[in-house]
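HUMAN:
Just now I want nothing more than another pair of eyes on a protein record. I would be glad if you read both lines and explained how they fit together. I have put the entry right below:
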Amino acid sequence: MADALPLHVILLRAIGPATHKLMGMEQWRDAAAAAGFAAPETLVNTGNMIAGFAGTTAAAEAAMGQVLRGFGLGENVVPIVRTPDLLRRLVAANPVPEAAAERPSQTAVYFFAAPRPDLGWLHGYKGPERVHVVENHLVVDFLQDAAKSARLIRLIERHCGTGTARNWTSLKRIAARATARQAGH
């Protein structure tokens, strides 16, 4: 049974219209299945997959990296793998409940490739955005359109390294689908 394997959530960094010319979602699912990912399912927007995989999250990241290189995608397209349990904990932690309820598209969770990104710089950060750390992930209430927070986004990239973000609505949908898959639905 496909879901008897440990379930992994794969979040791609730097995926978008330019990369679609090299890799469509159906192609990605097919290549993932050929690489040993069981019942790969893409969802929400591009760059999100749930699939079974026999190895650890690190092994799943390495295997998915090879899948992506097979499409000729650049080194900037990076798979960041998490467990469904971690996504559920992030949703449950919800350090910005008002923003998550009223401005979910302006509330983002940052996932980093490094297991322990440098988050010490946040102690001195004075910006309008509200930033919280939950299990080495940043939850940011942008309070406005995230595009108006270029300074914070540059600081996150500079200090935390390679990462990707999902808005609160997407995070909840991905976590809910991963939970349903674990339950056999």
About this structure: The radius of gyration is 16 Å. The mean pLDDT is 93. Residues 168-182 form the longest helix (15 residues). The first strand starts at residue 7 and ends at 13.
